[in-house]
Amino acid sequence: MEPGQEGAHTITGEMTLHGVTKEISFPATVRFRDGGLTLEAEFSVDRTDFGMDFGPDRVVSEVSMTVVVGQKTEPDKGPDGGAAGGDGGRRGGGRRGGGNFDPAQMFAGMDANEDGKLSGDEISDRLRERQEAMDTDGDGAISLEEWQES
């Protein structure tokens, strides 16, 4: 991208998710407004490329990303003037129960037999690689407490 050039560009850089860094490229629109630069992009990444391969039958691999740099956003207003939706008005909140990450909810989604531990087929190949280090009580399963401490 040439300095001062507006329009469509390809942005390339490193993205780190879940401790894994990959080089990615995505299309973006660059504009100059009110004496400042804005960059806007919408693209998808494959979460499994970053080692997030849990729940393949319950969670899609492609994750949509929206990036806005240099532009202040306001929450969407509901009919009563308050923020609309459970995600604080952010676009693409996507998580049940709002935009906050809840490790206990993720754990519960993986605990298919609801016994409070991840074992057997509930443990993805990626998680199995770390199971011995995570399983601090040595019972062959991962409890919620062990999950949160790892």
Fraction in helix: 10-25%
Residue ranges: pLDDT <50 for 5 or more in a row?
75-99
SS strand fraction: 25-35%
The global form is elongated
Instruction: Please list the strands of the largest sheet in the order they lie side by side.
Output: 1-2-3-4
**DSSP helix count?**
3
Measured distance between first and last alpha carbons: 41 Å
Q: Briefly note the CATH topology name of one domain.
A: Recoverin, domain 1
- Class inferred from helices and paired strands: alpha+beta
Question: Quick check: average pLDDT?
Answer: 75
Biggest sheet: strands, sense, closure?
Answer: 4 strands, antiparallel
CATH architecture verdict of one domain: Orthogonal Bundle
Radius of gyration: 20 Å
Give the helices and strands as they follow along the chain.
Answer: EEEEHEHEH
Number of strands: 6
* CATH class designation of one domain: Mainly Alpha
Give the secondary structure arrangement, pairings included:
Elements: E1 7-17, E2 20-33, E3 36-46, E4 62-69, H1 103-110, E5 117-118, H2 125-134, E6 142-143, H3 144-149
Antiparallel strand pairs: 1-2, 2-3, 3-4, 5-6
